[in-house]
Amino acid sequence: MTAEPSAVDVPAASEAAPAKADVPAARHTLQILTHLAAQRGPVPASTIAQTLGLPRSTVYRLLGVLTALGFVLHFPEARRYGIGLAAFELSSGFARQEPLARLGRPILASLVDKIGESAHLAVLHGRDVIYLVEERAPRRPSLVTDVGVRLPSHLTASGRALLATLPLAQVRALFPDRSAFVQRDGTPVPGSVTSYRELSRLLAEVRAQGYAAEDGDVTQGLASVAVAVRDHSGWPAAGIAVTFARSSVPPERWPELAAAVEHAAAELGRRISGRTG
Fold it and tell me: Where is the IclR-ED domain (predicted)?
């Protein structure tokens, strides 16, 4: 009977295989998943093989394994492959865990020091945003966007910034009818977005001006501006927003604040992609 490996049998980090050691199957698998995650929809296996420069037989074999494990979805009628639920859970796990908040907290603290207004970091979860970090500026009021709070994405600046980066079909799927534009108690927000047509118009404005804003949609008298944080593939990983008293910061100053938020979002995007500014 083969003995179980003991702790001393496990090589230390310094004894592990060098980072440059190549494991083709692992590398090809990650290339396929990365490629699928960057697409706006399912793609043929032949396209994957051609784009990545891999033999078709290798691609089909790896797709079969990934499909069986739930990391890839096969659409037989269309003869295409797309990212699967198991792969989505990996990205969701990253959003739920500490790394994103830990990387974002010092960046938000620096942003608050620079502009003197409170800032927060949020991620998209279905039709809601979940707040992971809040950095409150001195002598500023407490906000409803505390850590762990969920709010409808179409009401918040962070949510609008994130929604504006998504494919239109995905936004439509999130907001299929008017019932999607209500608060948790089932009531609409007076003066806010109440239809997909209004949301589409609003998101087009966000894309045109480069940042999202909300004015009293979450808390009367307070406004926010936000920018999406993108990962290495350009996909939205989170949103950074600053919130301020509407009476103290007129709309003509909002682009100035948005520029500072954009700088912070770009830095966080570099860090979650393994790069530094």
Answer: 86-274
Residue 105: count of CB within 10 angstroms of its CB: 16
The domain ranges of the chain are: 21-88, 97-272
Structure tokens at 128: 């809601």
**Is there a contact between 241 and 156 (Cβ–Cβ < 8 Å)?**
yes
CATH code for residues 97-272:
3.30.450.40
Query: What six digits make up the tokens of 131?
Result: 């707040």
Domain covering 21-88, topology? Arc Repressor Mutant, subunit A (1.10.10)
229: alpha, beta or left? (left if phi > 0; alpha if psi -120 to 50): beta
Asked whether the whole model's pTM tops 0.70, one would answer no
Angle at CA 28, nearest 5°, toward 75 and 56?
55
What are the average pLDDT values for consecutive 10-residue runs of the chain, which has 277 residues?
39 42 86 91 94 95 94 92 86 67 92 93 91 83 72 93 93 89 64 86 95 89 93 87 90 94 94 67
